[in-house]
Amino acid sequence: MEIIKNKEYELLIEDMTVSGEGVGKIDGYALFVKDTVVGDRIIAKVIKVKKNYGYGRLISIIEPSEERVEAPCPNARACGGCTLMAMTYESQLEFKRKLIENNLRHIGGFTDIFIPPVIGMDKPFRYRNKAQFPVGKDRNGNIVMGFYAGRTHSIVPCEDCLIGSNVNAIILAKIKEYMVKNNVEPYDETSHSGLIRHILIRIGFTTGEIMVCPVINGKSLPNEDELIKMLSNLTFEGDRKIASIIINSNTDKTNVILGKTSRVIFGRGYIEDYIGKIKYRISPLSFYQVNPAQTSVLYDLALEYAGLTGSEIVWDLYCGIGTISLFLAKRAKQVYGVEIVPQAIEDARNNAIINEITNARFYVGKAEEVLPSLYENEGVYADVIVVDPPRKGCDEALLDTIIKMAPRRIVYVSCDSATMARDLKYMAEHGYRLEKVQGVDQFPMTGHVETVCLLSRKAPV
Ligand code: SAH
After folding, report:
1. Ligand 1 atom at shortest distance from the alpha carbon of 316
2. What does the pLDDT look like over 397-423, one tens digit per residue?
3. What pLDDT shows up at residue 461?
4. How far is the CA of 29 from the centre of ligand 1 (A)?
5. What is the 316 CA–ligand 1 centroid distance (Å)?
6. 25 pairs with which residues across the strands?
7. Share of the chain above pLDDT 90, in %
8. Active-site annotation holds for 415
């Protein structure tokens, strides 16, 4: 059967891609259709035809899947951030578990490893502690704040993202009121004019502290005192107030949200939060996990898998701001962290100081260069090695050095189970046994999943 562009077809969604698109077949021809769920019988319009597969747009659902729910956010389809929102949370977790299982099986060659259910959240909404809303104007000249539609830069109004905090909408409404009253124009990227570009809001979930950071195309705002007054008078659930207001200047013609300079106009230049018992200082530019509740679950597992007794030497590669390193330091003799971003290492060192941790040392550089060089030149040693690489996984030069160092245990934390499976396979071929695998849902409603694995050395070398 020839598949014709712009024609509508009926099909059953039978599978899902890693990014959460449904896949169905028309007479053997695979069609990818966004916004569908496995088990949906749908009508789709074909929008792109390739030789062996094509893309379709969902026109209507003839028979909804049993796994389908009504997406609680009216913007779910336009926004595209929460690709799994139309699935029950249970099916989302099972989708993620299967993803890990399939990658370990097909890429890693692990056919008999047990993958337990992914650890989810009791309330899988309102979990993000950070939000960045672009500010602009709609066709009628009204100020809008929300998200960029698809791949464009037109703003869909949405002041209350359901995976973000419910304080966001209150803060945005107040800022809008201030803008209207003081004739403050939103930034217009085509003419590079106007003032307010983005509103960044960060929250310390355990401390309750809130930071508001307008990103502006200039140095200051008109009537800043009034903005300070309006925002600092707000009281939120639990009697919380805004702890910090910071103006960030970004006058460049760029898609990068934050500029390099910040000026504190109210409160402190940072807020604080905890993951487990470790305290973190968060400024507008610093990296911090967006779902601290689940991060703590993930790191507790990493700690358990590391099996520390207090006498171990531990290396934490790709350590970021030292989150895992500091988590492990209290149970180890000495922890070493390696990270490529110098600013993150500065934060890691500060975080060690504010937590009075003295047995953590950090190196700036590529893990695949720093560790091999320290091993060749200084013969560094490890009882346990933790890796938490970005999506592309570990470099083979790093894996080779890890294998030479022969730690008793390796804890692999991953945000991409495909590259993780590839790296685990390599380690399994070089003397390690995959003992445990556990998925943790850090990003409910989206297609992402974090995985933590334990490998142990098969025989003493
Ligand atoms: N473990 C940290 C961060 C993990 S994210 C945490 O939980 O907070 C992965 C980190 O690897 C990022 O901080 C990134 O900057 C860093 N990175 C990327 N490539 C790297 C490389 N080649 N060597 C060392 N670090 C790298």
Report:
1. 1
2. 999 999 999 999 999 999 999 999 999
3. 52
4. 40
5. 10
6. 30
7. 91
8. yes
Please state the atom number of ligand 1 nearest to the C-alpha of residue 395: 22
Output the pLDDT for position 460. 62
CB neighbour list of residue 379: distance below 8 Å, 6 or more residues apart: none
pLDDT digits (tens, 9 = 90+) for 100-148: 999 999 999 999 999 999 999 999 999 999 999 999 999 899 999 999 8
Task: Tell me if residue 424 falls in helix, strand or coil.
Answer: helix
Which ligand 1 atom lies nearest to the CA of residue 295? 7
Catalytic residue, candidates 319, 394, 415, 453: 415
Question: Which amino acid residue places its CA nearest to atom 3 of ligand 1?
Answer: 320
Give the pair of three-digit tokens for residue 229: 């007054």
Total-model pTM: 0.92
Q: Which protein residue has the closest C-alpha to ligand 1 atom 13?
A: 320
Estimate the crossing angle of helix 367-378 against helix 396-405, to 10 degrees: 30
Q: Where are the alpha helices (DSSP H) in 151-215?
A: 167-181
On the question of pLDDT at 395 being above 60, the answer is yes
347 alpha carbon – ligand 1 mean position (Å): 13
Q: Which residues line ligand 1 (CB under 6 A)?
A: 289, 318-321, 323-324, 338-341, 344, 366-368, 388, 390
What the block records as the tokens of 126 is 């309102």
Q: What is the DSSP letter of 177?
A: H
Q: Which atom of ligand 1 is nearest to the CA of 320?
A: 13
315 Cα–ligand 1 center, Å:
13
CA atoms within 13 A on the CB side of 219: 0
Amino acid at 329: A
Residue with tokens 């500091």: 326
Q: Atom 5 of ligand 1 has which residue's CA nearest to it?
A: 390
Q: Each residue of 148-182: pLDDT tens digit?
A: 886 778 898 999 999 999 999 999 999 999 999 99
Which of 318, 319, 362, 440 maximizes ligand 1 atoms within 8 Å of its Cβ, making it the mutation to test the pocket? Answer: 318
pLDDT in tens, 234-271: 999 999 999 999 999 999 999 999 999 999 999 999 99
* DSSP state for residue 84 in the 8-state scheme: T
Q: What are 8-52's pLDDT values in tens digits?
A: 999 999 999 887 899 999 999 999 999 999 999 999 999 999 999
> Rounded CA gap, 322 and 338, in Å?
9
Angle at 280 between CA 277 and CA 282, to 5 degrees: 155
Alpha-carbon distance 391 to 389, whole Å?
7
Query: If you measure from the C-alpha of residue 284 to the centroid of ligand 1, how many angstroms do you get, rounded to a whole number?
Result: 19
Helix axes 417-428, 396-405, angle to 10 degrees: 40
Alpha-carbon torsion angle 25, 26, 32, 38, nearest 10: -40
